[in-house]
Design a protein that fits this description.
By secondary structure, this protein is α+β, with helices and mostly antiparallel strands. It is built from six helices and twelve strands. A hairpin with a 5-residue loop joins strand 8 and strand 9.
Length: about 240
């Protein structure tokens, strides 16, 4: 059984009671740590890391539907992440979601989210757990001149306040609860509409998310595949395990 240890971060996050803060092992990404301990930690485990270059956290979820549709939890996570970043930064700066898991700030890549589940879970079975992990670039000081990496940005470059490292995960937790509340009370479509509002133009084309997570765009129903995009994790640099610069 995995033994959970209290977070050793200097400042404990002010999380809603449904969440319990846990620290990843030294050098371990929050997403990997949450997947490792998901079975024993249970839903609500909120895993954090102590890194300076990124804000890295993950949360264990308790799905109640088959994996094929439960994967749509990614949209709730991305909605919560977008709203947390939007609430922490300057009001006039645009926040957007690149399909389906990349977070854009002022049209540059700031980070993203990803989803994990038990590898042996069948598509028609409810998984014992899901893990939503998020990562944002806190600083690109290690990457040299920002002009060398124009496709990405950081909280530091965008003049987020010094408290963003705590504020964003705390806000994410609250917005995540709200997203699932909307899903439960008003239906998935109501929550998905909020997610879709963050997708870049053209927003005038009708869009909806199918039961399997695919996005259907336009009157002809152009299909943006969800499962393949989940596997790709477009924002993640496999060489560094962090957000692509």
């Amino acid at each position: 059984m995995t033994v959970l240890t209290p977070s050793r971060t200097a400042t404990r996050l002010m999380l809603p009671p449904a969440f319990s803060q846990v620290e990843a092992a030294p050098g371990e990404a929050a997403f990997a740590a949450a997947r490792r301990m998901a079975g024993s930690a249970g839903p609500g485990a909120f895993v954090v890391t102590d890194r300076q270059d990124v804000i890295d956290f993950a949360v264990v979820l308790a799905p109640d539907e088959p994996l094929a549709s439960a994967r749509r939890a990614l949209f709730a996570g991305m909605l919560a992440l977008a709203e947390a970043v939007a609430s922490a930064g300057p009001a006039e700066m645009p926040v957007a979601i690149g399909w389906p898991d990349t977070l854009l700030y002022d049209r540059a890549r700031l980070g993203g989210g990803r989803l994990g589940w038990p590898q042996d879970c069948a598509e028609d079975a409810a998984p014992d757990w899901l893990v939503f992990g998020a990562m944002l670039i806190a600083s690109k000081a290690h990457a040299g001149d920002p002009g060398l990496t124009p496709g990405s940005t950081s909280l530091e470059e965008e003049s987020f306040g010094p408290g963003a490292r705590e504020l964003i995960p705390e806000s994410f937790a609250r917005h995540l609860m709200k997203a699932f509340e909307i899903w439960s009370e008003d239906g998935f479509e109501a929550m998905a509409a909020r997610f879709l509002a963050y997708m870049p133009e053209p927003a005038t084309r009708p869009r909806r998310i199918d039961l399997n997570g695919d996005c259907l765009v336009g009157a002809e129903g152009e299909r943006l595949a969800f499962a393949q995009a989940l596997d790709a994790v477009a924002w993640l640099d496999p060489a560094t395990g962090a957000v692509r610069l």
